[in-house]
Amino acid sequence: MKHMNKFITNGSQGVKDIIQKALHQKRYELFEAEAKQVIQGFGIATPRHAIATSPGEALQAADSFGYPLVLKIVSPDISHKTEAGGVKVGIKSEKDLLAAYEEIMDNVKKRCPSAAIHGILIQEMAASSAEVIVGGLRDPQFGPAVMFGMGGVFVEVYKDVSFRIAPVEEYEVWEMIGEVKGAGILKGFRNMPALDIPAVVQTIIQVSTMMMSVEEINEVDLNPIFVYPKGAIAVDARIILNRP
Ligand code: ADP
Ligand code: MG
């Protein structure tokens, strides 16, 4: 499988190092930047990013990426960044960037006063599109499994998701997408174009491969993944490790 090759040749050592470092520090949830590096090692696309520890470094990162950008808090104590006031999207200028940097710091200090702050993640902003969620988990009974759902209210309100035990075959992944009612919009809807369902299928297979090959990972949550007419990109990634 071509994505396995990519993992073995490029990503393998990087993935192991990231996980060992986190375990050594007794951190059982990876930072978003680490989680993105792990999923990239399995061939999943993510926006470019850099961690800034000062407004000056944030401006430097912005210079190399260009605008628009997204800013996110980097803290080992904050898992749900939006809830902490730790995400700002649609940053279009240096002025926006400096204001957003300060606002995130203020929000987090107010809402999570005891959280350690390691910096701010400066990230390329992906064009908005239909959102899907792909997850990986370890079921106590069935072992590694994958999950698929549509983003936003579909998952939260309607619990419109499907599961399969890993490792998954491609035909099973098409089935699991077919079981999700909201996934119909990926085929195109009114004036919206058909989206790249094969790219979503690949992402689910890549998460399945990751769950099978990295036993330290307990849970993966790619929420959301933006799906385009060509390609898909994970704009957020959360990885939880098994506790010893
Ligand atoms: P959290 O889930 O921890 O609150 P996310 O990283 O998912 O934080 O960011 C919140 C929302 O911001 C996402 O659901 C997505 O809509 C948007 N977003 C995050 N990162 C990007 C990005 N790089 N490009 C475009 N939109 C983004
Ligand atoms: Mg998210």
Give an overview of the whole structure.
This protein has 244 residues and is an alpha+beta fold. Helices cover 38% and strands 25% of the residues. It contains seven helices and ten strands. The two termini are 31 Å apart. It binds adenosine-5'-diphosphate and magnesium ion (MG). Adenosine-5'-diphosphate (ADP) binds next to strand 2 and strand 3.
Kindly report how far apart the N and C termini lie.
Answer: 31 Å
Secondary-structure element order, N to C: HHEHEEHEEEHEHHEEE
Rg calc: 18 Å
Total number of helices: 7
How many extended strands? 10
Shape: globular
User: Are any ligands bound, and if so which?
Assistant: adenosine-5'-diphosphate, magnesium ion
Low-confidence stretches: 1-12
Helix and strand composition category: alpha+beta
The helical percent reads 25-40%
Describe the largest sheet. 6 strands, antiparallel
